[in-house]
Amino acid sequence: GQNIDQPTEMTATEGAIVQINCTYQTSGFNGLFWYQQHAGEAPTFLSYNVLDGLEEKGRFSSFLSRSKGYSYLLLKELQMKDSASYLCAVRDSGAGSYQLTFGKGTKLSVIP
Amino acid sequence: DADVTQTPRNRITKTGKRIMLECSQTKGHDRMYWYRQDPGLGLRLIYYSFDVKDINKGEISDGYSVSRQAQAKFSLSLESAIPNQTALYFCATSDSITPSQLHFGDGTRLSIL
Questions:
Q1: How many helices and strands in chain A, by DSSP H and E?
Q2: CB neighbours of residue B48 within 10 Å
Q3: Res. B1: pLDDT tops 70
Q4: Number of Cβ pairs closer than 8 Å across A and B?
Q5: N- or C-end of chain A: fewer Cβ atoms within 10 A?
């Protein structure tokens, strides 16, 4: 089984930097994924990490430490349009099917 | 046009009714999934299919069934709907090269009274 934990809500100011943490416990880790979901819309893929370290993609970066069961999503130069829920998901190879298990999501509100 | 299309977008029905949610895709992906999303519970996998002849149960398959009629179509059925199946349902697709990069439809909001 898997246990994924992330904060329920966060608030940050436009132009600032925010870090959204995700911790997980899994029997057969095979990758960690971040999705963005605006209110009333479908989730969209943001990034993934399989190896330890930082992956940068424009204003968004994602970090992974497999030994600590820990990841974070870093959003720089926040914009109002970044207000959304951010979903952490873990891929577990234990069952051989490489399915994703999602955390409950972190709702980020960006304020002026 | 959307690459992953779900119909209907909204549905209100009564307990005990049979309901079918449909999903079609033009992305050419071989893998298709049904998830439900509930406030405070996140996205949970109901069923998934890697091929027309392949059907697999997810985390919460009880009370649901699926049919993969063609590579592009994957339908979800609730044989006898109950109120706790009220949720937002998403269909998703992925290819075998990037299997965890899911492409979601716009969702079906289902209310069971």
A1: 0, 11
A2: 23
A3: no
A4: 45
A5: C
